[in-house]
Amino acid sequence: MKSLQDSVAELKGVGPKRVADLATLNIDTIEDLLTYYPSRYDDFTPTDLSTAKDKQKITLKGQIVSEPLFTRFGYRRNRLSFRIRVGQQVVMVTFFNQPYLKKQVEMDRQVTVMGKWDARRQQITANKLVTTASNKGNEYGAIYPVNKHIRQGTLRSLIRQAFEDYQNVIPTLLPQSLRDHYRLMDRRQMIKEMHFPEDAAMAKAARRTATYEEFFLFQLRLQAIRRVHQREDGTRILYHNDEVKQFIAGLPFELTDAQKRVVNEICRDLRLPYQMNRLLQGDVGSGKTVVAAIAIYATITAGYQAALMAPTEILASQHAEKLAKVFAGTHVHVGLLTGSLTTKQHRELLTAIKRGDINLIIGTHALIQNDVQYANLGLVITDEQHRFGVNQRQQLREKGEHPDVLAMTATPIPRTLAITTYGEMDVSVIDQLPAGRKPIQTKWIQGKNTNEALHFLRDQLSSGAQAYVVSPLIEESESLDVQNATDLYQQLAAYFEPNYQVGLLHGRMSGDEKDAVMDQFKNGQIQVLVSTTVVEVGVDNPNATVMIIYDADRFGLAQLHQLRGRVGRGQRQSYCLLIADPKTPEGKERMKTMVATTDGFQVAQKDLELRGSGDILGDKQSGVPDFKVGDPVGDLKILQIAREDAANLLAEPHWDAYDDNQPLVLYLKRHQLETHFD
Ligand code: ADP
Ligand code: MG
């Protein structure tokens, strides 16, 4: 019985030498061969001459009707010309400097030529010739990535042979329902059309099926693994739906659609007996805090405690302040656990936590340390770059807690990367800002034209604005970095004297010095804050509406986006000026991207495209798998859909018992994965 797992040696004309040659392309089995897809296609579909425009690239197919004429001129230059009849018309074809084509052209022969159309002279300056013999009448030909061991033609004919011999044993993996739903081809047809398509449309349709199938199978494996992990017991948080709804209704605004969606995703997880492990992504200001508040509230209606962990004490106390307001008048009792408590306060707080009198505990890492005993911890939320690691979860487990975990981040991770690399986490995305926000206007100021920026800044200051000015980044040297900032500070102080006050902030200043400058900036004593990139984190002054970044091309897109996020936090229109003279195409693209969008996810996505996914996380760790057909950037939509479909399938009870799913069950078994989860 034939099987796709047969060795390529089963094919005619494939001996040990050829087996070894094919192995250099990672082709061992018939399946490897059949899924060795073309990297592109040569399109020899003839152009309709009546619609061809001058200088257009066209393809003509016809019969040679004149003796070819070969002439040399100048040093190593030559020309080959002949006439072909295309339908009723005779067209002159000219090749320059391809003398070897002489052998292939002779009277009466059928040829296909590609090149540039000269409409006035009705002639084509061709650069590619295909004789009918070499393209076997196939006008749309697959081109494979090959190496020095295997020739294009050899590979093509082996694939054809393999397809002819094995087409009847190609199992379709995707269930009928999914194929119907997305109008996908069955696998046999898909493989056929990938290799031997009639035309571009067929090839495209086949690629669409292949891409979906590849992503779906990848997600199926990933999620099968995840489901095994999830079987570890978690907490079933049976919150009171009505109370949660009431709480949401009491908020001073309507949730955005994106917020509603992620609230649903989180609440569904809370109810499940598994341990939630979810990443909540959203740009600065997208309203993550309120989503977290809803999750906390839900948890508390179920009689559990919630903890919110922030990276610094300052951020923890900011959260505590915000949330105390949100929860005023409810039965949420907030406790802030920080190092600045007295011993007595600390002891009392711990007691209240242990008794369950405090049901929302906010703090830093201290929250999971040993002296903190919870009454019944149901949910842990971590904020900003504070990925809750396996170790910390283990720490809690040892204390007998299996809380659901929600990690919030304002650093957009391109969806592609999130989906492919955070395989162990579910990802929720708030991809929409609350209505009425004025998008920050971004302008790229070329080169050394800093005066334009300064005039604009003076204008803004005169109408009461405040501004950040970020000095050039010198990564190699902190002292140069500081020097730059200091120079710029002196320059601007002189420029704006005596009307406006300029302040300076950099990494070499002490904590107290920084705080003092920040306070002056916040209360308006300073109008312009010159700074190194330290403003990136934690600085919040809603009255600041101008961000000027010097030598902006030295920063990566992610960092530029974070810097820009310092403005646009109030009611007034905000502006970001990028002063840059990028020398590379990528540098220019970065500036254009910043001007074009304020959406952090689009910025991150562009970053991914410009740098390549490997670059972002370092080749080895990126974890972005090598897909054969699918491109996780270009085919993102398909990846997302496939992911959902795989999840839905595995979530169906007894999914592995249905006939239609048996090929997938076999597929998972072949990858040594379990198929039954309950
Ligand atoms: P993030 O934590 O994502 O940076 P926040 O949750 O702090 O964002 O929200 C930013 C601001 O927007 C807050 O003042 C918040 O009250 C407000 N906000 C949040 N959601 C909405 C909404 N749906 N409509 C209007 N304003 C909102
Ligand atoms: Mg926030």
Task: Give a quick rundown of the structure.
With 678 residues, this protein is α/β, with parallel strands linked by helices.
What does this structure look like?
The protein is 39% helix and 18% strand. With 678 residues, it is α/β, with parallel strands linked by helices. It has four domains: 8-40 and 142-227, no CATH class; 45-137, Beta Barrel (OB fold (Dihydrolipoamide Acetyltransferase, E2P)); 241-430, Rossmann fold (3-Layer(aba) Sandwich), CATH 3.40.50; 441-597, 3-Layer(aba) Sandwich (Rossmann fold). Helix 19 (585-596) runs antiparallel to helix 20 (600-611). The longest helix has 31 residues, at 200-230. The model is unreliable at 614-623 (pLDDT under 50). Adenosine-5'-diphosphate binds at residues 253, 255-256, 259, 282, 284-290, 410, 434. Residues 269-430 form the Helicase ATP-binding domain.
List strands and helices in order, with pairings.
Blueprint: H1 16-23, H2 30-34, E1 40-43, E2 57-64, E3 69-73, E4 77-86, E5 89-96, E6 110-118, E7 123-131, H3 132-135, E8 140-143, H4 152-166, H5 176-182, H6 187-195, H7 200-230, H8 241-249, H9 257-271, E9 277-282, H10 288-301, E10 305-309, H11 313-326, E11 334-337, H12 343-355, E12 360-363, E13 377-383, H13 390-398, E14 404-409, H14 415-421, E15 426-430, E16 441-446, H15 450-462, E17 466-470, H16 478-496, E18 502-505, H17 511-522, E19 528-531, E20 544-549, H18 557-564, E21 575-580, H19 585-596, H20 600-611, H21 613-617, H22 636-651, H23 662-670
Parallel strand pairs: 5-7, 9-14, 9-15, 10-12, 10-13, 11-12, 13-14, 16-21, 17-19, 17-20, 18-19, 20-21
Antiparallel strand pairs: 1-8, 2-4, 2-6, 3-4, 4-5, 6-7
Bound molecules: adenosine-5'-diphosphate and magnesium ion (MG).
The site of adenosine-5'-diphosphate has 14 residues, from α10.
